[in-house]
Design brief:
Helix content: over 70%
Number of helices: 4
Strand content: under 5%
Number of strands: 0
Structural class: mainly alpha
Largest sheet: none
Order of helices and strands: HHHH
Radius of gyration: 17 Å
Distance between the termini: 24 Å
Oligomer: single chain
Length: about 70
C-alpha cells in the first residue's frame, strides 16, 4: 500500500482492512494481548538472560497470529 500511486485503489484497500483497527476491535484484542504478555513475563522469569530481539520477535508473531482468529 505504501508504494501505491493510485489514490482510489489505495482508499479501497484501506477501507477493506480499516475496520480491523477500529477502537472497538482493538479493545477486543485486549485479552489476547494479556495472555501473550503473561507468557512473555513467564518466559523472562524462567530465563532472565535472553536475546531480547528474538524474544520480542516471537512475542509479536504470537500476537499477530492470534489476531485473525479473535
Amino acid at each position: 500500500m505504501l508504494g501505491m500511486q493510485d489514490e482510489k485503489q489505495n482508499a479501497a484497500l484501506k477501507r477493506g482492512i480499516g475496520g480491523a483497527f477500529s477502537i472497538k476491535n482493538l479493545l477486543d484484542y485486549e485479552p489476547d494481548i494479556d495472555e501473550t504478555s503473561a507468557a512473555l513475563i513467564e518466559r523472562i522469569q524462567q530465563e532472565p538472560e535472553f536475546d531480547l530481539f528474538q524474544v520480542m520477535m516471537f512475542y509479536q508473531i504470537d500476537f499477530l497470529i492470534k489476531m485473525p482468529f479473535t
